[in-house]
Batch of 2 targets.
Target 1
Amino acid sequence: MTSCEAMASSCPLLLLVLCSLTVAEAQLKVFNMRASNLPSSILGTTDSYVKGFCGSATLGKTSVRNNNPNPWWEEVFTHFKAEEKNILRLEVHDSDFIFDDLLGVCQRQIKLGTHEHDCFLEKGGTLHYTYTLG
Ligand SMILES: [Ca+2]
């Protein structure tokens, strides 16, 4: 065997090793988003929506649910390049005429599988959501 043949035959093995070292990208889906007992202000009941982020990526924004302390959102946030241990960040905002008010932030490191969470919001109320990574 020449040295050239020896190198060629070891190449597939090298590629295999390199491939197993890279982090696997997975699909993230956030769904079943709903909130309960959102606070009301002097301006009235909350008009809330959710903004989602995963790592440095923006996942999107739901529609605004007007005058509802117990809203739910049918939107699904999808991210095709998520990785295990990325930080999933969900922000609940109250839509107002001038400034939107941040009601609370939910952050967690994502894991493979389907997980359901309740997250207490800083200004009152709870955000419920489910995510699937895989
Ligand atoms: Ca409002």
Target 2
Amino acid sequence: MKKILILGGSGFIGNCLYRELYPYFNLFGTYCSASRFSKQKNFFYYNVEDDNILTVVKKIKPQLIISCLRGPFEAQVACHKHLVDYIQNFDCRLMFISSTNVFDAFEHYPSYEFDKTLSESPYGRFKIKIENSLLSLAPSKYVIARLPMVFGTNAPRTKEIEAQVASGTPIEVFPNTIVNVTSDRKLSQQVHYIINQKLTGIFHLGSSDLITHFDFIKRIVSRRKLKGAVFKQIFTTNQMRYLVALPKENKLPPHLHVSYESILEDLYLP
Ligand SMILES: NC(=O)c1ccc[n+]([C@@H]2O[C@H](COP(=O)([O-])OP(=O)(O)OC[C@H]3O[C@@H](n4cnc5c(N)ncnc54)[C@H](OP(=O)(O)O)[C@@H]3O)[C@@H](O)[C@H]2O)c1
């Protein structure tokens, strides 16, 4: 059975991928501060600042590494450089969970898979650095999955909105920013399909329809039946601004397309 190692398997996205793939693959994960994972025999402690990732990789010898890490940016860049060197010489592929923020300097239109990346944020620039090191690999060796904001019933973003409403803390919203979105459930299905079909290259995995950030957050508040939300509207520019990556070249089949309405449906109260 194919061995898959999920870096950041204890995190929100890493763990939802872990749960999706577990029945079908020989799965391993890393954790850092979430010590409850130390009890799981296929989880390894890994700290991107102190440890060499190749120690874990050489122990497991996975055919696929999925990178869902957070942590200090420069340490993550160095970690992915080690991974790219390893992948060049071994029977292994690398899937990097990237972000729409690699395009956050382009405000006037959505971006597509092969558009030039450019970011004004430290987060986007660090994602670009890692993407560029993957791009030095043969195309059959990597997947770059660019995600918008990820929601879901138990997503940290959803929980944060609930906590803010409960405590009366204003929720920061961007009425001028047009976004697309996804959910943990939809993302897991898409990643599973990419792995099964052995697809490689760059994928934009957000909803195909667009909405302003403010409207989407208002819809979540209403869907979760939260009462008394206070919004703090932030205008970064006078014009509408896109933070959107859409698929053009590497489209998944229709049953894996996502709409923001379907993401909201996933947010019904249990
Ligand atoms: N969530 C979103 O909306 C979203 C959108 C676009 C892209 N992304 C990208 O998706 C990836 C995963 O995001 P997430 O939301 O799942 O984050 P998360 O829930 O915070 O999970 C991060 C993972 O990284 C691990 N980690 C944190 N610090 C570390 C360190 N110093 N050394 C080693 N491991 C460390 C965490 O381990 P412990 O928990 O055990 O400490 C956890 O497994 C990130 O690269 C993020 O940029 C996320």
